[in-house]
Amino acid sequence: MDLPRLVTLHNLTAGSGSKLRKFNRILILWNQSILLMNMTGNLLETIRFATDQMNGEVDSFGTPKLNLAIDMASLLWQAGEVRDQKTLIAAILSPLADSDIQAVIPQIFGDKVWSYIQASLRPEQLEVPYFQRLAMDSEREKLTAGRQILLAFWATTLTHWSRNPEVPKAEAMTRWEHAQTQLKGFAGTHPHLDKMVQAAAEEWNSIMSSTPQSS
Q1: What are the residues facing 58 on neighbouring strands?
Q2: Using alpha carbons only, what angle is made at residue 191 by residues 186 and 192, rounded to the nearest 5 degrees?
Q3: 215 or 135, which is more confident
Q4: What is the distance between the terminal CA atoms of the chain, rounded to a whole angstrom?
Q5: pLDDT value of position 34
Q6: Which string of b and e fits 114-130 if b means at least 16 CB within 10 Å?
Q7: Are residues 20 and 13 in contact, defined by beta-carbon separation less than 8 angstroms?
Q8: CB neighbours (10 Å) of residue 134?
Q9: 205 alpha carbon, distance to own chain's centre
Q10: What is the dihedral of CA 75, 203, 197, 186, to 10 degrees?
């Protein structure tokens, strides 16, 4: 790794002990995906921004938002073979889409990144018939990124649910059943990510089938 990247990493990991521990975990995940050696300054800045903004926050199912964000980007890089920087940045920032700082995301990271995040929140527009009607390359790029981010979200979310015994299972299952209907609209468009969602779903369904109905 060259000197500028080492200096950047040193600056990012400097600070409080809690932030250092969180960032160490992030670096381990990136290293596992061989992404650390390929990260640009923009990706590192995005991770620092996400670390600051998601500090300690969890979603409605108890999943740490920062863990979800990094796991999504790691899966996109490894299983999805996604190399588009804006898509990876959008994945990292997507858990902030409904936060108080959402308005500054396009200002800091650009309108295209924000459009990718927004696309991932509108599954009905990601379906194949809608996609095929588009003539503009920019719209196709946006919806492709939206699909990739949404698939990565569900693959990582289901994995987190499977490994968290405290997740509210009935509520989670209802949400997943609804999501399955949406995902069918563009099934097969990203085979590698589809497989990851399927594997995560099988693990989750196995846990649910062995869980007493009263829970």
Answers
A1: 64
A2: 130
A3: 135
A4: 49
A5: 47
A6: bbbbbbbeebebbbeee
A7: yes
A8: 13
A9: 21
A10: -170
Q: Is the pLDDT of residue 136 over 90?
A: no
Asked if 162 and 201 count as a contact pair (C-beta separation under 8 A), the reply is no
Separation of alpha carbons 83 and 28, rounded Å: 19
Instruction: Answer whether residue 214 shows pLDDT above 50.
Output: no
Tokens of 201: 């779903």
Closest CA to 158 of 146, 147, 167: 167
pLDDT tens per residue, range 94-122: 999 888 888 899 999 999 999 999 989 88
Report the amino acid identity of residue 19: K
Distance CA 134, CA 152 (A): 23
pLDDT digits (tens, 9 = 90+) for 172-204: 999 999 888 888 877 777 899 999 999 999 999
